[in-house]
What does this fold into?
Amino acid sequence: MVNQQRQPICGASWWWQWLPIMLLLAISQTTDATPPSNGDWWQRTVFYQIYPRSFMDSNGDGVGDLPGITSRLEHLKDAGIGATWLSPIFRSPMVDFGYDIADYTAIQPEYGTMEDFEALLVEAERLGIKIILDFVPNHTSDQCEWFRRSVAREHPYTDYYVWQDGRVDPNGNGTARLPPNNWQSVFYGSAWTLHPDRGQYYLHQFTAQQPDLNFRNPAVVEEMREVLRFWLRKGVAGFRIDAVNHLFEADGFPDEPETGTDRDPLSYGFTHHIYTKDLLEDYDMVYQWRALLDDWSRVHGGDARIIMTEAYANITFTMKYYHAEYDDEVDGQPRAAAGSHMPFNFLLITDLNRDSSAQDFVYTIQKWLTYMPRVGATANWVLGNHDQPRVGTRYGAERIDAIHTLLLTLPGIAVTYYGEEIGMVDNPDAISSDGGGGDSVTGASDAFIVFSRDPERTPFQWDGTANAGFSSGPTTWLPVHPNYRELNLAAQRLAERSHYKTYQALVALRAHETFRKGSIQLVPYSSSVVVYVRELAEADTFVVVINLVAGERAVDLVAVFPKLSAELSVASSGSASNYRVGDIVQADKLIVGGYDGLVLRSMPLMSR
It folds into this structure.
């Protein structure tokens, strides 16, 4: 990633020197990354992640719940959102706030009841909003009945989890045991814990309270299939599959090779995770789940049920989740298997930040579009989630509108984390030295301050009343950001211009056929300005201009995209922009304000 220490070079001499290379770059990066037809529902909509504890509290206990979500679904409709995925709502002791599931088919009591969930589905259907559930198949809670029975070696649960005897301690008395190998937990420490009742070690790639299921046991695979069927019968539109690249471990449980870059043997960075992550069986399980959902849609009718997969992996591994192509044939055709509709693309989170240059942005965007399969794949762009700092914190609050302009005009699917549409930022006051009521995974230590995920999980800021309108109770599970009196949805809806109104207008503009089906050409105009054109034969052509820095920049769009009309109309601008929708600008003499994100409309491009 390029560190922007040098002064931006925007003079004419620089531009004409590099113009041939820029034009070649634009041509070489013309990408058709959207479906040729109108596409299925999931290819056309914007997805929105709700963190249930923080969205809306209906009963004053300070914790968000299902009736609260139901009461606020109108907001999603108003914003133009077509689908929302809920972080886990299943019964859980909440060691990892729902990612440690005790019962996959029961609702966490503090969130409500199954009747509350069914009422949410009814209201969502009325509003035309799809509901996606967070599915956590890699591990359960240690309070799950399956685990308790497995500890007791009760048939058929004996091998539902990954159990090993461990190694004899060479420095002990012959009976002392050590963990089976050098595998580490993602959350630090050994990935193995000795259970005194069973007398064996169990594997947990996350916390010790999250034992890994044994997916080499066909009974476990069938249990997970039945969980999917249970919620499909309820009427959900699909599943976001958590930590999918951790499902399988290598047979024999060999030690993993050391990285040589981290000398702490208890740190996750101590080894290369070649035996615990990204195994071929992980992909095959996704293909099996996709087949189940496709079969369900064929039998029961209705819209497609979808899979979204979370895997922090290199881009080559991530692309394998889309589908598989095999060497053999079936009925004279190459055998293939469909996989994830949306292997989550985290590049806007992991590879870019406030210090990134225009070249970094173009490279990162084009990286996904280049590696993505040419057929049967739709791009997606995840801008934030419950594990990562918010957009305004990562990129700077001054860039919120510009980054949303980017997100909502790229080809494919956009995913928004709750609160980003109004520009919420991390609340550092949500971190307490003892862990408070927040992120219990990171624990009470200095590591908590560094790695806590609480700052990006604070309550939604609905209005300027007490607790930002999130709860009528005296306290909330995490403190509301103190800026809520100025930064809240109610105020932004009333304002002439705001983050929310910019976001809302961009979502509406995204429905234009050029954004749904058109190609894209990306160019780093300078180190601080990204420009790209979205075009489609016999439809409007749009140019997007993103200024990453505070100062104004002069841009000659005709020099980069010669087929543009001389005059362009402003289709969208940031909430602090000097331009308004409908303003006319000169394509060869555009002045872009600091941190502005502009969408400009050209004349229709005739077929050629």
In short: Residues 48-140+218-427+444-502 form a domain with the TIM Barrel fold (CATH 3.20.20.80).
